[in-house]
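Hi Y.,

Following your request, here is the sequence exactly as I used it, all 564 residues.
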Amino acid sequence: MQMQETNPTKILALGGIEEIGKNMYVFEHGDELFIVDCGNKFCDENKLPGVSSIICSFDYLLLNKKKIKGLIITHAHEDHIGGIPYLLKTINIPNIYASSLSLLIIKHKLKEHNDIKQPKFIEITDDFIIKEKHFTIDFFRVCHSIPLCYGVCLQTPNGNIVTCGDFRFDFFNKMEQTNIHKICDISKRGIDLLLCETTNAESLGFSTSEYLIINEIKKRLMNAKGRVLITTFASNLRRIENIIEIAKNLKKRICIIGKSMETNIKSSIQLNLIKTFKQDFVEPADIKNIADRDLLIILTGSQGEPNAALNMMANGRYPHIVLKSSDTLLMSSNPIPGNFDQVEQLLNRLYKSGMKIYVNSKKNKLHASGHASQIELELMVKLINPKYIIPIHGEYRMLAAMKSNVSIVGFEKEKYIQVTNGQIVELLNHQVNVTNNFVNTDEVYIDDNKTNVDNSRVLIARKILSTDGIFNVTILIDRNTHKIIGIPKLITRGCFYANSYINLLHKIEYSIRDNIESEMSKNPKPIDNLRIRKIVEQTITYFIYKNKHKKPLVQTTIFDVHPW
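Below is the corresponding structure, written out as tokens. Let me know if you'd prefer a different format.
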């Protein structure tokens, strides 16, 4: 008879749930911990002036730094690697496991930063296996919008977990097929938990094939009389590879503009993922020597970023290129959530030049998402056949749409588990339990490559106040007798109308008292105020999230009482 495991495997997201960006997931068993991805999230500078991006709090990892065995990277998009430099400034990560392309891009990124605690870089392939005391980890290739992307299978003492990364199924993309055969082999192990992305869960059917996008771009390139400018995500390297091949066949010279675009293309050429020659390219300063009809410019700025090349051109500030009416611009992307206003403002400025502008639409198929739509998500679920699903990588409406999608193919709704960032999930003997324990997931704001925790916490507090309200708690405590004097006093604002929830407030007050006294009785030494505040916060979070699905700001005032 097989022995029952008594120590649960913990799973939690430090970022990536109820949001697009800053994906970071933790898998922990005993004295071992693996991190999957460490991304950032871009923000609207009009709402957060001076803030370039947002990353996760690393507080939980600092508390468990001795357990960390490695960081696994599914692919080299910013929302999966953008936080790595700041993680390495904070914690010594022994190993980073990633594909050859991801490792090159990460290394380029790290050159821009000082005070990095250098890890060991280990390349993963389809056959690579990580073997530790509690974890056996292997990988399967998935198709996305950048080469060499992987899903991850973690075998633990309590069962098997799969996180599929960002994926889609596109059978045109011969170099980057989702490895259905490997997925089926992994499925035969019996998968207890699937962490599945949900970005396009609201999109019906199957995603548009990249084949249609490339044909549309080819048609526009062939018909253009003057210069053609194409902007797309710098990481969409398979599309860029195809565009370069079309341009070469049309005898056009190619100009690459934008730091991230140049870095990614150089990395792909170095790894022979893009096959081209130096003479195919022209430097921005030499554009004036090339006839307009013979020139293709591939550049950054599809998201309206203030300092990107396209935005500078729209403002007349780019040194080598002045836009003119004979130019054609192809916007081979869609605005990501949070960037719609920026992109609209950019387009309005670009139209003033008189150039022809084509944006992605049903008529002009210039962009296909790298994320799975409804049928592709259903296909992945059926292939993996998990016992439980936790949706990740999506805003709340996407997580909810995914639930409807998987129920269509017979998945039990009770085993579709929606959690929040920081909420600890436990896998024990093949059964999933969602706890009401939360770790800190305060966002950290990046300003000029520097983290600003203090400002971020002020802004977070304001945000929480505006949506979830605040609890002020006053406690009188006699540490000599290990007793709370009276009942803790609660005052709440902005969370709910207190007079309508008197019974709930009383239950919270008594629970705070009982939980603190229970903790004090276990410890012969007086517990400090930090621990008391943590107990208060956890107690309030448990009751309010359970009853109101809110996570209010909690402020605790503690008075030491010494009776005569």
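The longest strand covers residues 470-478.

Thanks again,
Q.
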